[in-house]
């Protein structure tokens, strides 16, 4: 029994070892086939050290170690080493070339040890019928389903619902624009009335059937009355100032006439006293008193002339202020009219665009509803767009298909019609 069992057991062990070896070779071949190849937007972490045999110590090349991103040219740029192409290569191949280049560049006795690991994969892109299409980071063992979940899952609601939402949104915007246009039209009518110096606002012909026309005209009329009252108050204040100045000028002129008559009389008395003084018939003190009186009247007359001149200058300034106020008012009205015309033109253009969007949304909603009635079923299809040898290739996929860095996952509906 033992002599028979030993050869059989030996054959079984030999067969098992052969199967294990074949399985290991298959795994090694699969790993080699699936070894990751670098490309643009990958981020690498490089570390370089050197064992110095003579010194028996390890030297850290910190100037070269660090994180690097693969640029659009498919290369990374290392300090001292320079530009290093990495696209399409493995991290081990890149590490080996870094070590070789450094040994040659710096004439190192020992080959330095370079390690290159993938710090961050290049992103993937999700497009089509998902909630949030866009760019997302890649993670190992990622499938199509996981990528779609990053995009918020499948887009909810059919095309008809989306077009209905578009119509409701456009209709709301149109209501706001119509209200803004009506307000601008009434404002323009108010400015036209102010420029023509009218007391009332003529309703715009475009708004003859508008339900809010009366309220808009009432609001603009109140503003016009307030502005007109403010301007009239300012003009009345300037008119009162001019009247006061005119009264002051007239009073100063009368006062100047009186002082001139007094001066004439005093000068006559002084001449008589001079004649008597020459004959010795009067004292010199009387003559001195009259001379002092003449001087006082002349000084008073000079002050009156100065005050009259100042009043005339103030009157001219008040007149100029009145003119400037009217001119500034007209200029402000003209500028406001220009701004209103420009805003009205912009709102009218936006409203026309919005109405076209509403019409398009209605048409598309009807088409979507008809398509839904004629559709028997709708299937979700996944397609992976992957670059191979510099060319984009479309690969049909399922939810469990593995995704690679840089892939574009397209999600679309395939509708079967009756």
Automatic annotation (TrEMBL):
Pfam families per record: HH_AprE, Poly_export, SLBB
Coiled coil: 235-269, 330-357
Leader peptide range in chain numbering: 1-33
InterPro entries listed in its UniProt record: HH_AprE-like, Poly_export, Poly_export_N, Soluble_ligand-bd
Positions of the AprE-like long alpha-helical hairpin domain: 174-354
Domain of life: Bacteria
Name of the protein: Exopolysaccharide production protein ExoF
Alphabetically ordered keywords of this record: Coiled coil, Signal
Span of domain Soluble ligand binding: 124-159
GO molecular function, one term: polysaccharide transmembrane transporter activity
Domain Polysaccharide export protein N-terminal: 31-118
Segments passing through the bilayer: none
């Amino acid at each position: 029994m033992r002599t028979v069992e030993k050869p059989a057991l030996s054959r079984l062990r030999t067969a098992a070892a052969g199967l294990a070896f074949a399985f290991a070779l298959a795994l090694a071949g699969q790993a080699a086939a699936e070894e990751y190849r670098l490309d643009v937007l990958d981020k690498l972490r490089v570390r370089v050290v050197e064992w110095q045999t003579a010194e028996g110590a390890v030297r850290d090349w910190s100037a070269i170690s660090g994180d690097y991103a693969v640029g659009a040219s498919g290369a990374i740029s290392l300090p001292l080493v320079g530009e290093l192409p990495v696209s399409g290569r493995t991290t081990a191949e890149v590490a080996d070339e870094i070590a070789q280049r450094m040994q040659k560049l710096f004439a190192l006795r020992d080959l330095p040890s370079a390690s290159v690991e993938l710090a961050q994969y290049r992103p993937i892109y999700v497009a089509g019928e998902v909630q949030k299409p866009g760019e997302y980071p890649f993670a190992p063992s990622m499938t199509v389903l996981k990528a779609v979940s990053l995009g918020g899952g499948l887009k909810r609601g059919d095309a008809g619902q989306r077009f209905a939402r578009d119509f409701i949104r456009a209709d709301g915007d149109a209501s706001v624009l119509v209200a803004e246009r009506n307000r601008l039209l009434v404002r323009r009518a108010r400015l036209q009335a102010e420029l023509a110096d009218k007391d009332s606002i003529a309703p715009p012909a475009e708004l003859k059937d508008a339900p809010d026309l009366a309220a808009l005209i009432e609001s603009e009329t109140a503003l016009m009355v307030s502005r007109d009252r403010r301007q009239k108050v300012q003009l009345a204040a300037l008119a009162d100032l001019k009247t006061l100045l005119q009264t002051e000028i007239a009073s100063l002129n009368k006062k100047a006439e009186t002082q001139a008559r007094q001066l004439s009389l005093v000068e006559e008395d002084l001449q008589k006293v001079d004649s008597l003084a020459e004959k010795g018939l009067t004292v010199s003190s009387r003559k001195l008193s009259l001379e002092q009186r003449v001087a006082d009247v002349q000084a008073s007359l000079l002050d009156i002339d100065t005050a009259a001149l100042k009043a005339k200058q103030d009157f001219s300034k008040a007149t100029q202020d009145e003119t400037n106020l009217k001119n500034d008012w007209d200029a402000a009205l003209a500028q406001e009219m220009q701004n209103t015309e420009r805003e009205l033109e912009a709102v009218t253009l936006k409203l026309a665009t919005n109405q076209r969007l509403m019409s398009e949304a209605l048409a598309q909603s009807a088409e979507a509803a008809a398509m839904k009635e004629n559709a028997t079923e709708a299937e979700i299809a996944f397609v992976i767009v992957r670059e191979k040898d510099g060319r984009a290739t479309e690969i049909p996929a399922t939810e469990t298909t593995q995704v690679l860095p840089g892939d574009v996952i397209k999600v679309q509906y395939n509708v079967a019609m009756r």
